[in-house]
Amino acid sequence: MAIQNVLILGENTVGRAIGDMMSQAGLSCEVANRAALADQDLAPVDLVIDALPEPTAEKTLSLEQIGRRLPERTILATLATSFGLTGLASSSRRPDRFVGLHFQPPAPDTRLIQIVRGLDTSETTIAACRELVASLGRTAIVVKDSPGLVYQRVTAAVMNEAIYVLWYGLASREEIDSMMKYGANFPMGPLEMADSLGLDVLLDTLEELCRVIGPEHRPCPLLRQMVSAGHLGKKTGKGFYDYS
């Protein structure tokens, strides 16, 4: 199945950015809010991407309502990575045609898109999504449904360990970042990466991983202190580095 017509549910920054990416690749793409779906002709739609930032209960209800109206062949995807993909797939009434698509932020610049396989996601659905990602000029990595997926889980652990090293006084921030850039060929150091991501986002990710997986993901106390102080990285002008 070739995906040509895409509907993105969620008129927000992320939804619009992904919509622009799809349109630039020559796909027919529309970005709409949930209220607009009532009058929408969904027959031509090959893929619906849920970009709604909602709590679990509301998102589950939304996907159930959308799933009822979609043609049999249509794939339903979600950007959510922390809601439990398989549970959402069940509520959508099309678990074999339900998949996760995670566009590594910032979406327009990403070279990586994780395709998240739920328990019942079919190979046909995975193949169609691989083809879609290739048409966007991006690299697709298929991962199983799990907390934090793969990229976030690995990078969060690296950033957290770098913060622990700084907190213990084993090396300066510049030395830590230089070691990883020149020793491990990282494009940026882990503390620079944390500042770019947002220290509040990193803290939320680590707390969720700690809750679901175990204490090996416990956030460094220094990270908690910085978030409490409002030093969240580039977006506030101050994190591990000063951006003022």
Instruction: Report low-confidence residues grouped into runs of 5 or more.
Output: none
Structural class: alpha/beta
Q: Order of strands in the sheet with the most strands?
A: 2-1-3-4-5-6-7
Beta-strand residue fraction: 5-15%
Helical fraction equals 40-55%
Stated plainly, the CATH topology of the largest domain is called Rossmann fold
- Helix tally equals 9
Number of strands: 7
Q: What is the name of the CATH superfamily of the largest domain? A: NAD(P)-binding Rossmann-like Domain
> Tell me, what's the shape?
elongated
CA-based gyration radius: 19 Å
Walk me through this protein's architecture.
This protein is elongated. The chain is α/β, with parallel strands linked by helices and 244 residues long. It has a 7-stranded mixed sheet, sandwiched between helices. Strand 5 and strand 6 form a beta hairpin. It folds into 2 domains: 140 residues, NAD(P)-binding Rossmann-like Domain (Rossmann fold); 86 residues, N-(1-d-carboxylethyl)-l-norvaline Dehydrogenase, domain 2 (Orthogonal Bundle). The chain starts with a strand and ends in a 16-residue tail after the last helix. Helix content is 43%, strand content 15%. The protein is built from 9 helices and 7 strands; from the N terminus they run βαββαβαββαβααααα. Helix 2 packs across helix 3 and helix 5 crosses helix 7.
